[in-house]
Amino acid sequence: METVSSSLTFLYKFIFTSVWSGGFGLGTVVIFLSRKLEAMRWQFAAAWAIGTAFLLLTCARLKRVKLDAKSAPQSEARYHYLQEGDAIRERGHFHAARVL
What is the rounded average pLDDT of the residues 13-25? Predict the structure, then answer.
């Protein structure tokens, strides 16, 4: 069975998303609580909200995909998905049903 997805999937899905969102959010809270940089408060809040939404829409949806001759199992943190090879050829893309 061959792994098709990147070896950095775990890093981008869990580590990068959490560290960036938490760190930027903490920085935004610090700016709101301090009396300095009053003009930049809302810019930081907007950048944090937009950046976090972007990361959740892109990085949080990543899955680990392995491929063999008959199927393409995908996995997230708790759930595993199985896509049969014939269905992939018919549709031309992955559309997996959830398997526990």
Answer: 93
Report whether pLDDT(19) > 90.
yes
- Name which of 31, 24, 13 is nearest 50 in CA terms: 24
How are beta strands 71-75 and 2-3 bridged, if at all?
unpaired
Which residues pair with residue 27 across a beta bridge? none
What residue ranges do the domains of the chain occupy?
6-62, 63-100
Could you report the per-residue pLDDT of 33-48, keeping only the tens digit for each? 988 888 889 999 999 9
Instruction: Kindly list the distances between the CA atom of residue 29 and the CA atoms of 25, 40, 50, in Å, as whole numbers in the listed order.
Output: 6, 12, 16
